[in-house]
Design a protein that fits this description.
There is one protein chain. This protein is mainly beta. The protein folds into 2 domains: 90 residues, RimM (Elongation Factor Tu (Ef-tu), domain 3, Beta Barrel), CATH 2.40.30.60; 69 residues, PRC-barrel domain (SH3 type barrels). Strands 1-2-5-4-3-6 form a 6-stranded antiparallel barrel. Strands 10-9-8-7-12-11 form a 6-stranded mixed beta sheet, with no helix packed on it. A hairpin with a 4-residue loop joins β11 and β12.
Amino acid sequence: MGRVGAPFGVQGWVRVQTFSTDPDALLDHERWWLQAPASRVREAPARAPGPVEVLEAQPHGSGLIALFEGVVDRDAAVALRGCPVALPRSALPAPGEGEYFWDDLIGLDAVDREGRLVGTVSGLIEAGAHDVLVIDRPERDAKGRPRQWLVPFVERHVGRVDLTVRRIEVDWQEPV
């Protein structure tokens, strides 16, 4: 749903960058889940990942500012910088027809229109007009990393999405 940013003031407030199309979506929830940031996986986390009570939160600029229970000063706020902010799926409205949680798409087998495996969805990118699927191809580059296709998530290039069998149909050609 977002990420904790820089401290805001000296009393424990933090800036929150939201990833939702509705930046105020987090404001409807009194409890958020903070996760350890990927950049600090090897370090001791500033606080155990998990739920945190939101004492106050409000819009500020293009994001939010928030005050969490137990975060009483700037040092405590600095320690949370970079923590991803999440909500449990049960707290979110169900996706509409043709809409998906990104988390459900990651890991799907990507197949072409004939059903041949072309790769695996490894992520998505929000690109403004539409989202973009990141598909890891079976081939590797010179450094041993999977080659990737970036496929616009639009009807022209993405066909059937079947979460039951964990497959997504894509129509994409090798870039020239």
